[in-house]
């Protein structure tokens, strides 16, 4: 089954409205890249014999950043509430699964380490997670990291800042709340970890090149700062 043109446009309009309040690292263009990447992964995995609900992948990818914890304010509806309200209006039968994927996509949720059988087995969730991670690394990942650091008024590079390697969920939450850290530390704390967190064979294959781009970039930053050129 595929989404009707009207349904897809209304879903896109909802996402554009929601993302308008976010910074350029989490805008509509990011969401559209994640959707396209998720559909690419789904197509490749399907061709390798896996049974995948393409419609579910597209909707979950479209809605994956609605209600993002980094931007959510007390009193606002949650991502689940927004998604369920929209899908209920369209009598969409798998609304709860879409909302469940949206709730579980983030790196933050994975870092918390809460295991459940559904999350471990849902291929559609894995595809959207991988697509989101792929857009967080490589060239776009570099630009997004700089954009979000600017939005949060964090330094791009502070030689006195020591990255928290193997950052725990508690450390991640504390850093977010305190708005500390710098852009280059974020590569060591999160972005360099994403390559090894990919779940689908397609994403695992795609991630290495993007990872290498980031490693070269950070090495260049270090070289330029040291003035050893």
UniProtKB/TrEMBL annotation:
PROSITE patterns: HD
Ranges where the HD domain occurs: 27-137
Source domain of life: Eukaryota
Pfam families in the record: HD
InterPro entries (UniProt xref): HD/PDEase_dom (IPR003607), HD_domain (IPR006674)
Ranges in coiled-coil conformation: none
Protein name: HD domain-containing protein
Source organism phylogeny: Eukaryota, Fungi, Fungi incertae sedis, Mucoromycota, Mortierellomycotina
């Amino acid at each position: 089954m595929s989404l009707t043109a009207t349904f897809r446009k209304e879903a896109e309009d909802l996402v554009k409205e929601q993302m308008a309040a976010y910074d350029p690292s989490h805008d509509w263009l990011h969401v559209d890249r994640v959707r396209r990447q998720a559909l690419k992964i789904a197509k490749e995995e399907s061709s390798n014999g896996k049974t995948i609900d393409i419609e579910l992948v597209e909707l979950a990818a479209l809605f994956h950043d609605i209600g993002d914890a980094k931007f959510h304010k007390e009193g606002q509806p949650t991502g689940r509430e927004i998604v369920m309200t929209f899908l209920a209006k369209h009598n969409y039968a798998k609304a709860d699964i879409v909302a469940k994927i949206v709730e579980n996509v983030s790196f933050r949720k994975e870092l918390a380490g809460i295991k459940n059988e559904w999350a471990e087995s849902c291929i559609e969730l894995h595809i959207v997670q991988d697509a989101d991670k792929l857009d967080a690394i490589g060239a776009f990942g570099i630009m997004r990291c700089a954009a979000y650091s600017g939005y949060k008024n964090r330094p791009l590079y502070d030689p006195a800042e020591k990255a928290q390697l193997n950052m725990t969920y508690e450390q991640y939450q504390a850093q977010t709340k305190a708005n500390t850290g710098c852009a280059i530390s974020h590569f060591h704390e999160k972005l360099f970890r994403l390559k090894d967190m990919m779940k689908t064979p397609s994403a695992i294959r795609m991630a290495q090149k993007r990872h290498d781009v980031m490693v070269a970039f950070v090495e260049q930053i270090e070289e330029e700062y040291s003035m050893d050129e």
